Amino acid sequence: AKKFKTLEWCTLDFDRRVDSRTIYVGHRPCPANEVFIPPKFCDNRIVSSKYTVWNFLPKNLFEQFRRIANFYFLIIFLVQVRVSTFCCTKQCYSDFDILPQGYEDWLRHKADNEVNKYRVTVLEDGRRIQKESEKIKVGDVLEVDEDETFPCDLILLQSSRDDGTCFVTTASLDGESNHKTHYTVPDTERDVESLNATIECEQPQPDLYKFVGRMHIYKNNEEPTLRSLGPENLLLKGATLKNTQSICGVAVYTGMETKMALNYQGKSQKRSVVEKSINAFLLVYLCILVSKALVCTTLKYVWQSKPGQDEPWYNEKTLKEKETNRYLNMFTDFLSFMVLFNFIIPVSMYVTVEMQKFLGSFFISWDKDFFDSEIEEGALVNTSDLNEELGQVEYVFTDKTGTLTQNNMEFIECCIDGHQYKYRDASSEVDGFCVTDGPMNTVQQKAGRVSVEREELFLRALCLCHTVQVKESTEQGQDGQVVPPLQEQRGFIASSPDEIALVQGAMRYGFTFLGLESKTMKILNRTNDVEMYELLHVLNFDPVRRRMSVIVRSISGETLLFCKGADSSIFPRVKQEEVEKIRMHVERNATDGYRTLCVAYKHLTPEEYDQVDSGLREARLALQDREEKLMAVYNQVETGMNLIGATAVEDRLQEEAAETMEALQGAGIKVWVLTGDKMETAKSTCYACRLFKRNTELLELTVRTLEYPGKRREDRLHDLLLEYHKKTVQDAPPAKTRVASQDFGFIVDGATLSMVLNSSSENNLHDYKDLFLQICQNCTSVLCCRMAPLQKAQIVKMVKNSKGSPITLSVGDGANDVSMILEAHVGIGIKGKEGRQAVRNSDYAIPKLKHLKKLLLAHGHLYYVRIAHLVQYFFYKNLCFILPQFLYQFFCGCSQQPLYDAAYLTMYNICFTSMPILAYSLFEQHISIEMLLENATLYRQIGKNAMLRWGPFLYWTLLGVFHGLVFFFGVWFLFSNPALQDNGQAFGNWSYGTIVFTILVFTVTLKLALDTRHWTWINHFVIWGSLAFYVFFSFFWGGVIWPFLRQQRLYFVFANMLSSVSAWLVIIVLILLSLLPEILYVVLRKPRGPYARQVVL
Known about the structure:
Layout: H1 2-15, E1 20-24, H2 56-64, H3 68-83, H4 90-116, E2 119-124, E3 127-132, E4 141-145, E5 153-159, E6 165-170, H5 171-174, E7 176-183, E8 196-202, E9 213-218, E10 225-229, E11 234-235, E12 240-242, E13 246-253, H6 259-263, H7 273-304, H8 319-323, H9 326-341, H10 347-366, E14 380-381, E15 395-398, E16 405-416, E17 419-422, E18 428-430, E19 433-435, H11 440-447, H12 452-464, E20 469-470, E21 475-476, E22 482-483, E23 492-493, H13 497-508, E24 512-517, E25 520-524, E26 530-539, E27 547-554, E28 559-565, H14 567-570, H15 580-591, E29 595-604, H16 606-621, H17 626-637, E30 642-653, H18 657-666, E31 670-674, H19 679-688, E32 697-701, H20 703-706, H21 713-730, E33 744-749, H22 750-757, H23 765-777, E34 781-785, H24 789-800, E35 808-812, H25 818-823, E36 826-830, H26 837-841, E37 844-846, H27 851-888, H28 902-912, H29 914-923, H30 929-934, H31 950-974, H32 989-1011, H33 1017-1039, H34 1053-1058, H35 1061-1084
Parallel strand pairs: 15-31, 15-35, 31-34, 32-33, 33-34, 35-36, 36-37
Antiparallel strand pairs: 1-8, 2-3, 2-4, 4-13, 5-11, 5-13, 6-7, 6-12, 8-9, 9-10, 14-37, 16-17, 16-30, 18-19, 20-23, 21-22, 24-25, 25-26, 26-27, 27-28, 28-29, 29-30
Helix pairs in contact: 2-4, 3-9, 7-9, 7-27, 10-27, 10-29, 12-13, 16-17, 18-27, 21-23, 27-29, 27-31, 27-32, 29-33, 31-32, 31-35, 32-33, 32-35
């Protein structure tokens, strides 16, 4: 009764919490005589789409017109509807982005419908009913079959397995493809359909590894049975049932409240640095456009203010014109000049840029160097908008397991009482350790220093201290003796590949784990005898303890605790005289890049076990501070242990991982490793990848370094940040004089990072973040270990929003990397073993990490140079186009008389000059790919948006002004001679404009030809073909009388122009004069190497 009162008090205390919910299993009232008021929860619909049919047009148009260019095009289009009709194509340019976005959102709707309309089995009143997934409600009891995905978050009630367990894979959630074991709630395995129970649990929260709740089970008129619920009972939406025929579970979180939905970070619209530069340049040219219109409007009314100029005798005003308000006329004239000069804004550039990005992305997909024969796949481009961003990366954030490493664990060696054992065909002495091959009994005969009992105790620890399950049953021999399958044929299931590697390592030395049946663990020893142990408790691994333990009881009644974990976690809890003979072995293995674990054991007396058992049961029923109470019990029992030995497991590096990281650092890119793994293993991987070198001074900011006698953690954190800041920032020499011995590496863990990012205001939050960020930015490499998925995104966001807004790139292979992939400017997915969630959410996907080198140093470099030249060239050629039109107004009384024919105005950007620059932006290689890969430092030359800074922009603008002045005044000088034709007739104003336009088209096209360093047949075809097309069009347009034109201004103008020798002379001379500086540079410049075809930045 006393115990029940305690539980009742806990229940009342739990009910008072606002962050809890009560769920009725099967929607049945509990107890049955109570009034049932169904609680309201969200439905199970998943919505990842951005628009609906009703809001797509207004919402998308609002987003489109937030861009300066599109808003400008809208205004100009509305003005042209009234003033002019020859430029109606501008609205089509704005529509170019709307259609793809609508199609992409339609695909998202389609994917949502596939999920929401998926048929699931619901148990209602003893019947199995098929329902659509979106109709699932909290409290429904569902049945899920093998290889099916859980449609919502479920509490496991029943399993088809005899031991009440089931296995799931969570590759789409946390990136781990290994099988995880989940357990049914006791007392619910047989009568699920008639189960009367309520569940009290916490409100939805995104942590995948935390869940606190309890179940009240009502039977007849008895007092309710109370069962604790934890993450081992929770089946998450998106996980897949494996190696289990079917399970039954009750829905606790549905729809957008599931942990998967709460962890999903929606895709934001990523904008490249090139687009930001285009917007800045656009503002400058808008100011130039407005200035030109204001100058011409002002001069027009100044000129008309003179007597007789406003209303000459040959052009008298109508009555309506005389009555019109003068200021309204001025505004109308201003708009007319805006329309006349609006071609200075390169409208077609946006379409050309989109085409260049879309077509250019195929070169990544087609690159044969990206093809991987193992998976028979190549690179994948999900977002073509960021091609040029690959050439501007300053920070790379990479996952470790599966990205830097293969996530394929192999048992390498072990150490027992200071003696090393390797499974190899050699025998030698190394550093005082015994290195030998074969089974351990052979070792004992050779060395004579380790007893067989200690060896077998160590191997039993490896076979018992884990959560591994056997996938396939053992076979029976002819005499009934158990015969295990071969090592290659035996299948194991575990949540961590490390555990499988250790169990397989024990198999090499004669101890085979046969499986777990009804809480009984079976081991086949060297003599083929089956040993059985009762599994009493599993003390699960967690990143704070950094160890896991099991408590088992042998047939003889002996109670044992076996523990394995990191050396920093095990050494303080064992007898110190046993530590030194193991420490050197562990440190050497860690230096070699192996994952090391220490193994210890402890005998428990009946009294000790009873105390631990009661403590664990009481802690697991707690709803408040459950983790802290469990931790206290764990720490109490895991003391005074005996150290047996240590293991070394290798997670091999990805192919060419070290070379790739070295190349990225040579390119000036800083590499940060963000991993959920432990610090020692991650540090070893960083050494193996050459991110940390032997002369690198490591600065550690972890929970271990914060433990300081007599100081609070917050104070110690502040002191360490100041110390490291002084060392890396204040006392650091300038970057140009820094030597290799002064390189720093920074190590931080997730718990300390939380303290830095979530400090209270009294701890100087901004100073903490700023100090931390400055330390990181002044280190050559940074290692962040024990990171949660959202913490990875926080790190990326912190760097992305820092001073200078550096371009960031995240690369990972698992679903736990999705948040940082979405957060970074560029997200790269690796087509690895941990599902395809990272690939689906990435901007680019590659089969192996080694392909990142060519993706950045070659493709990224070339994409940036191409599109930067495209942007500058478009502004240049449009300035050359409109400047003569502006100058012409000074010679026609600012009357808005166009210099060029309407056909030329329309065709200039669409046909005459568009294809050469598009071909250039697709095929140009100013430096060969071989040279770019050999010399990574070339990547630095284009860093910090070097080709789109204000200096190059000013150069191209002045070049456009120079060419425009040459075109206009060169032809004006020609026209100072009144008779240019053989018959003595003078050219008119349309001939003047046609000559200027001809020089313009040939000059800007030949300028691009001079800039081209890598010629293909396509470049030749579009450059010379564009010039030929212009000549053909001019003859054709002016040689035919078009009936649909009210006035034909260019009738035989082009033919008459070419009949004049003077016109031919001035065209040739002005083209050569304009291109003379460029020709001299090409002739006199010095080549930079066998592959160099360097372009001026």
